[in-house]
Amino acid sequence: MEFFLSTSTRKILAAALAGITALALVSCSAEENTAEENTATVTDSSGDSDSSDEQGTWPRTVTHELGETVIEEKPERIANTALSITGIMLAMDAPLAASAAAGVSGMTDDKGFFTQWADIADERNVEVLYDSLEFDMESLIAADPDLVILSVSGNDSVADQYEEISAEFPTIAVDYSKQTWQELATELGEALGLETEAEEAIAEFDDYVAAGAEKIQAPEGGVSIVSYNGPGGDQGIGKVTGPHAELLEALGLSIVEAPEDLDTSEQKRSDFAFVSFENLSQSATGDAVFLLRGTEQTVDEFKGEAVLANLPAVQNDAVYPLGENSFRVDPFSGREIVDAVVAALS
């Protein structure tokens, strides 16, 4: 999810919430974040839809992004080809046997699992399905899952292999690019018979955010969310309708957007506006600036740009990193973002 908002920003975000050079995942993008857009529906064996109240009702038919799948029994051994949603599945205690892995980098452990949830995956004995996001049908067969999950968006997508996979295993396809992790957890909960677990994961996250909000002193002039890519690249400026902005607003912060006439996007998005480096000084005008994928080094580079010297956040020494995992909001990286904001503003 290529690192989020690099020089090829639009391409990465269009691919859809995620990071690593080999990974053009965009889980962070939650396009038009509305539950109504979720396409997966569940019908129980009696033909009734929305059987989410009855977690033990099987078989159930799941209508998903690529078709319709009958799941005969509650899954006990899931193989997940969509690395971007592994954290969501771990948060809702899904019976995850194996997950695709990215190439090893500073954002992963030595297996290619993202650092924010890698330890939990190890505790639950989640195996690497295949590494470097290079689909391997033989590895999938060896994992012997009773359900396979894939994504139709992002560079972790194996949608082109749906027919091959679904011929061997029950398979459901999701689209994490058009919804928040909470909405996707709800969708997966209904499909997997984990409705209660999904609700609990969401409630625990909401409680964590609420506790963080109590510790924060919000800047009067609001905050800007910036994916800073240095001179020569497009810069991403968070919109109030994006997942990062929604999280910071839940912490009690007001989001300052870029002026609409500076957005150079060919197709307008709900999550980020894109501005030239030259217009960054007119776009990141909040009293504080939070840098996506930011580190202390990124902060120093941002503050060292002469054209940004007059920004309120630079003048007030209020430029803060959100951490390397902040390109995407999932239950684990979301907590890290909360911690970063609390550390900056408490």
UniProtKB/TrEMBL annotation:
Ranges annotated as biased composition (Low complexity): 34-49
Record domain Fe/B12 periplasmic-binding: where: 77-346
Annotated Pfam families: Peripla_BP_2
Protein name (database record): Ferrienterobactin-binding periplasmic protein
SUPFAM superfamilies: Helical backbone' metal receptor
Entry GO terms, CC: outer membrane-bounded periplasmic space
Entry keyword set: Signal, Transport
Classification via NCBIfam families: PRK10957.1
InterPro entries tied to this protein: ABC_transptr_periplasmic_BD (IPR002491), Bact_iron-sidero_bind (IPR051313)
Stretches the record annotates as Disordered: 34-61
Membership in a protein family: Belongs to the bacterial solute-binding protein 8 family.
Gene Ontology annotations of biological process type: iron coordination entity transport
Subcellular location(s) of the protein: Cell envelope
Transmembrane segments: none
Top-level taxon: Bacteria
Predominant localisation class: other
Leader sequence residues: 1-30
